[in-house]
Amino acid sequence: MAENGKLRSTEWFGTIDIHGFVARGWARNQGHPEQMFDGRPVIGICNTWSDLTPCNGHFRILAETIKRGVYEAGGFPLEFPVLSLGETMMKPTTMLYRNLASMDVEESIRANPLDGVVLLTGCDKTTPACLMGACSVDLPTLVVSGGPMLNGKYRATNIGSGTDAARFTTELRAGTMSQTEYLEAEASISRSDGHCMTMGTASTMACMVEALGLTLPSGAAIPASDSRRKRLGHLAGNRIVGMVGEDLRLSKILTRPALENAIRVNAALGGSTNFIVHLLAIAGRMEVELELDDFENLGSRMPMLVNLMPSGKYLMEDFFYAGGLPAVIQELKQHLYMDALTVTGKSLGENVEGAQCYNREVIASVDEPFQKEAGIAVLRGNLCPDGAVIKPSAASPELLKHRGRAVVFESIEDYFERVDDPDLEVDKDSVLVLKGIGPRGFPGMPEGGNIGLPKKILQQGVRDMVRISDGRMSGTAYGTVVLHVAPEAAVGGPLALVQNGDMIELDVEGRHLNLEVSAAELAQRRAAWQAPEPPVARGYAALYVQHVLQADKGVDLDFLVGGSGANVPRLNR
After folding, report:
1. How far is the CA of 59 from the CAs of 22, 73, 338, in angstroms?
2. What percent of the chain has pLDDT over 70?
3. Above 60 in pLDDT, residue 348?
4. Percent of the chain beyond pLDDT 90?
5. Are residues 164 and 244 in the same domain?
6. Which of 70, 108, 298, 351 is the residue whose CA sits 20 to 30 A from 115?
7. 304 and 393 housed in the same domain
8. Average pLDDT over residues 486-506
9. 85: Cβ–Cβ under 8 A, 6 or more apart, which residues?
10. Per-residue pLDDT for 2 more than 50?
11. CB 482 within 8 A of CB 283
12. DSSP H stretches of helix in 144-226
């Protein structure tokens, strides 16, 4: 609502002058009758549908169910499109455009006659992008995710998006899987509407918004093709109208306790490392204090309760049938702020009251977890003075404490050119180091950190090595992969100074990542180091390179941190 207690939309639809005439009159060409302008709440449905975003390809139908709910509750729904970020299609990386999409969402909400918003999200970056933009406006906002795909099926076996795609590709490169088998698996993995059904970034983000209290209970896990997903949309349409009447804004829900809840829940899920950069950016938009060490202090020692790929065995469909996120939250209640306010108008504890687990092979009890300490670990050391992260639950236990010689790739192009060279000086104990895929260096910080192993190592039967980069990896990925090294190589971080043959020590239990090179030698290397030329020279990408923050700050643009509120800055009246 506006500060005077009136609906914000009355500034457009409630005036008897040329401005009201135009707003109402032109809206009528869509067939909206007179009563739509009688002072009822106007609800924006922010739709990230696109044919180029297969995960969100069913959103036009889902949006219609939300509209039904809005109409039923006495609201006026108006759907609008924003930039859609399709993880499987966009190049060089959707992360480059996350902040641009957030700007689209923010300005579309602020500039239009909206009293509340439903964010229709699904594919990885669509959820944080929409939420970041909405946070900077701070209207009553509710998230409806599109839901995961049904389990993939290959030769009577469940297979998971991303995780098994990487596994099959590794076996194809190693010569242990035929091209015919590979293409058969490809045709079997994505067999319904929805986003990745592993606990990848899309599912992690859906669970994040539920843990934050921004979606209706069970909203994260209902499969996209399940009719209950449509019912959820209808109920969300009902609820957003009530939220407007209660003036239940994002700032009342996205508090520090809510963020802490999300960190702990993500650890219990074995969620994506991408969660860190997205939650940091969301906190920055809300101006809630949050830093990288909070993920270590709050989440790294949490028990892992959910047995889903890539850290476990099952998939999101199984997770939903086992009780979904309400069952996990109920298990974790002694670790969470159960009195945190949610979009239902009730507390998190009230939302999950009575939730049960129906399959202990999928959701463990807090007393008998699948892993006792499985949260994302934050590393420090002379190679990452501003931090780096690793996901121990997806790593090889024997590599979590490791010392090896660096095999350095100066860029992603250098990697692809040399990785399968028979003369590459590498063995199974080497540490693969990839530079230049950080926020500025690529630009956009792609999911390239989990680089494939050299072919000659694969042919020895080895399937994991320590890998280090300033980039990210897919939430569906696995392996002993150190990510988000900050500062990145492109801005002169210590990663830029690593050379072939340097000894690197990784100690996840001790939370250390160190380059065993003397300070004097590093000083000489730094004196000789030259900053790379900016990778782009025009347009949004150039703006991004000039203003993007480092991984430990959430990779937002510096001028987008915080918000401007819902008021239109200047009016032409």
Report:
1. 30, 21, 32
2. 99
3. yes
4. 96
5. no
6. 351
7. no
8. 98
9. 48, 53, 94, 97, 98, 101, 123, 124, 125, 126, 129
10. no
11. no
12. 163-174, 179-189, 201-211
Does 500 fall in a domain? yes
Tell me: do 127 and 199 sit in the same domain.
Answer: yes
Question: Does the residue 338 lie in any domain?
Answer: yes
Structure tokens, 270? 């074995």
Structure letter (DSSP) for residue 479: S
Cis peptide before 487 (omega within 30 of 0): yes
Residue 1 has pLDDT above 80, yes or no: no
Tens of pLDDT along 100-126?
A: 999 999 999 999 999 999 999 999 999
Chain centroid to CA 68:
29
Show the tokens assigned to 288.
């809630």
Q: Of 237, 213, 232, nearest to 43 (Cα)?
A: 237
Residues 438 and 311 in one domain: no
Total number of domains constituting the chain: 4
Residue 357 lies in a domain: no
Domain end point (choices 512, 528, 544)? 528
The whole-angstrom separation of Cα 93 and Cα 41 is 37
CA 239 to chain centre: 25
Instruction: Mention every residue, 6+ apart, whose C-beta is less than 8 A from residue 100.
Output: 83, 540, 544
To the nearest 10 degrees (0 to 180), the angle between helices 201-211 and 324-331 is 60
- Domain at 385, CATH number: 3.50.30.80
Stretch 44-67: mean pLDDT? 98
Q: Which two tokens stand for residue 491?
A: 């801005």
What burial letters (b/e) apply to 488-513, b meaning 16+ CB within 10 Å? Answer: bbbbebbbbbbeeebebbbebeebbb
> Beta-strand (E) ranges in 60-110?
76-81
Strands 503-507 and 401-409: antiparallel
Considering the domain architecture, whether residues 480 and 407 belong to the same structural domain is answered as yes
Average confidence (pLDDT) over 157-166: 95
Whether pLDDT at 573 is above 70: no
Residue that finishes a domain, picked among 488, 503, 528: 528
The pLDDT of residue 4: 60
Structural domain of 413: 377-528
DSSP code of 203?
H
- Looking at every residue in the chain, the average pLDDT score rounds to 96
Residue 564 in any domain: the answer is no
In the predicted model, what is the mean pLDDT of residues 75-80?
98
